[in-house]
Design a protein that fits this description.
Elements (H helix, E strand, L loop, with lengths): L6 E5 L9 H18 L3 E4 L13 H10 L5 E8 L5 H14 L4 E6 L6 H7 L9 H12 L19 E6 L2 H10 L3 E3 L8 H11 L11 E9 L3 H19 L19 H10 L3 E4 L1 H15 L3 E5 L5 H15 L1
Parallel strand pairs: 1-2, 1-9, 2-3, 3-4, 4-5, 5-6, 6-7, 7-8, 7-9
């Protein structure tokens, strides 16, 4: 029997109705400690802005909080939206994290703003667009190289840091860039699966070996919710379905509790949109999730999976990750 591909966790530090941001941070650390104990490989946090239900805007700060409260699991960004930042500042932040937690820090880079247009303008006061993303990535990688004699600008900390840099995306753009740079690639199939198969094919076909990576290495995102029964798992998943539809309605808010009748919540058009966007989802009892994950791996052949679960109740969320790991292993 082949060895299952490694599983990781993607967390948005959800702020749930009836709770607050401080509780979200405590729960993220608690989930990370469980993930470490359960044998998950990575614990990633994602940059989003101006979203009341997501508390991971200051991503590097939160990575430090999680890495400081764990000891072996890799911790990183899935990802940092590079157009919002100067490459030197990102190199310094993640160089600092690597110095504090050596050999454990990942940096996934995306080119989307991670927010709405008004907030993007507020973030990018001195930056016009994401068109310079490939150049910014190369500049950032340059700052992670060992400093050279006479180098006029160096990242301190950052030069020579052992940060594992990934490219993230939901299109062919980042797939091609990751291939050209010889870097691992993570596809956002958990919310934008449309181009997944083509992006994987392009990445693998065009991959150029680098000093960091000698062969393609791709990770796919999957929504996974596990409970003792299929009915309860589907009910827990209504939290994610509601949050997705509310965002598309222009009504982002705190993470809502699950509901008994999702059909009464959305219109047929909203249902179709949500089901298309969240198509990479495995929802059910442990046996169903075991079969579903193995089928997903057999069809798409990822090198890793990163699981995300937007569940309102923290205990149910922790248990879902416990059941998923046990079922898959």
């Amino acid at each position: 029997m082949s060895t299952p591909v490694p599983l990781s966790v993607l967390d948005l530090a959800p702020v749930c109705e009836g709770s607050d941001i401080a509780a979200a941070f405590r729960q993220s650390l608690d989930l990370a400690r469980h993930a470490e104990r359960l044998g998950y490989r990575r614990y990633w946090l994602a940059e989003h802005h101006n979203m009341p239900g997501i508390a991971s805007a200051a991503t590097a700060v939160l990575i430090g909080h999680v890495a400081g409260g764990t000891s072996t699991i890799r911790v990183g960004a899935g990802g940092i939206m590079l157009p919002n930042h100067a490459p030197l500042q990102v190199a310094e932040q993640f160089g600092t994290l690597d110095a504090l937690y050596p050999g454990r820090i990942d940096l996934g880079l995306g080119r989307a703003p991670g927010t709405d247009q008004a907030t993007a303008r507020a973030l990018r006061r001195y930056f016009d667009s994401a068109d310079a993303f490939p150049d910014d990535v190369r500049e950032l990688l340059y700052f992670f190289e060992p400093a050279r004699p006479g180098q006029p600008v160096r990242a301190v900390p950052g030069a020579g840091a052992d940060v594992e840099v990934w490219l993230l995306g939901s299109s062919l753009f980042s797939a091609r860039l990751a291939a050209a740079l010889g870097r691992p690639f993570a596809f956002a199939s958990h919310f934008a699966p449309g181009a997944m198969a083509e992006a994987l094919a392009v990445y693998r076909r065009e991959f150029q070996p680098s000093a960091r990576l000698d062969r393609p290495h791709a990770m796919l995102g999957v929504n996974v919710v596990v409970a003792d029964t299929e009915a309860e798992a589907k009910r827990l998943f209504t939290t994610q379905q509601q949050a997705f539809v509310r965002l598309r309605r222009g009504q982002p808010g705190l993470v809502p509790p699950p509901i008994d009748d999702i059909e009464a919540f959305w219109s047929p058009a909203e249902k179709a949109m949500a089901e298309q966007a969240l198509a990479c989802a495995v929802i059910g009892d442990p046996a169903q999730v075991s079969a579903g994950l193995r089928d997903f791996v057999a069809r798409h052949h990822p090198d890793e999976l990163v699981l995300t679960a937007n569940i309102h109740d923290h205990a149910a969320r922790v248990r879902s990750f416990e059941l998923a790991k046990a079922a898959y292993a």
